[in-house]
């Protein structure tokens, strides 16, 4: 009986924890934005003066409207001119220049609206022959990198993520013939990396032929079939 209760409790925790943490994080973030934005709103325009209570989210809405307005202005000629003028002014300030350029690069990387993304997930032999790791193909090697590699074949830029934090990893330049392309999506491969191999995308097809494992011999005309869990 206690084992069943324990199993039910763990199952419920797995269901509730992600939902509860997501709601708490969003609620806390909205409250933080409210506290940051509303202090710049004049007292006579504060929401509590009209409805009697502080409504969480008003500051977030004001910030959203203000951000959209700034983005709309930045697309115009006047906005671009003002931005360039401000950046030239910042470039003359030694410490501020480094901080601004770093934060700008991070913001452009995180919030970029371009569709640039990893092309495919693949397997690459790393850190030595016979050991395979999941990696992501970003693009073909170009420029000086391609010219300096003494190989007359296609070279791919490959990002090899670490587990369980896929935001860090290694940039490798690998001959395309040494890569094994995967049918799974980049998102599924990322889940596999983050879970340290515990979450596999989909389920193996029992009728799908697979290559025999080392030491196994497949019957003529047949391959090893996937074992269902």
Topology, number of strands: 7
Number of helices: 7
Strand order within the widest beta sheet: 4-3-2-1-5
Q: How much strand content do the residues show?
A: 15-25%
Structural class: alpha+beta
Distance between the termini: 26 Å
Summarize the structure.
This protein is α+β, with helices and mostly antiparallel strands.
What does this structure look like?
The protein has 229 residues and is of the alpha+beta class. The chain folds into two domains: 2-111, no CATH class; 120-204, SH3 type barrels (Roll), CATH 2.30.30. The protein has helices at residues 2-37, 48-51, 58-75, 77-91, 94-111, 143-148, 186-194; strands at residues 120-125, 132-140, 155-161, 169-175, 180-181, 209-210, 224-225. The strands form two sheets. It has a five-stranded antiparallel beta sheet with strand order 4-3-2-1-5, with helices on one face. It has a two-stranded antiparallel sheet with strand order 6-7. The protein is flat and about 70 Å long. Mean pLDDT is 81; it is low at 204-214 and 221-229.
What features would you highlight for this structure?
5-stranded antiparallel sheet, alpha+beta, 229 residues, SH3 type barrels, 7 helices, disordered C terminus
Protein topology:
Blueprint: H1 2-37, H2 48-51, H3 58-75, H4 77-91, H5 94-111, E1 120-125, E2 132-140, H6 143-148, E3 155-161, E4 169-175, E5 180-181, H7 186-194, E6 209-210, E7 224-225
Antiparallel strand pairs: 1-2, 1-5, 2-3, 3-4, 6-7
Helix pairs in contact: 1-3, 3-4
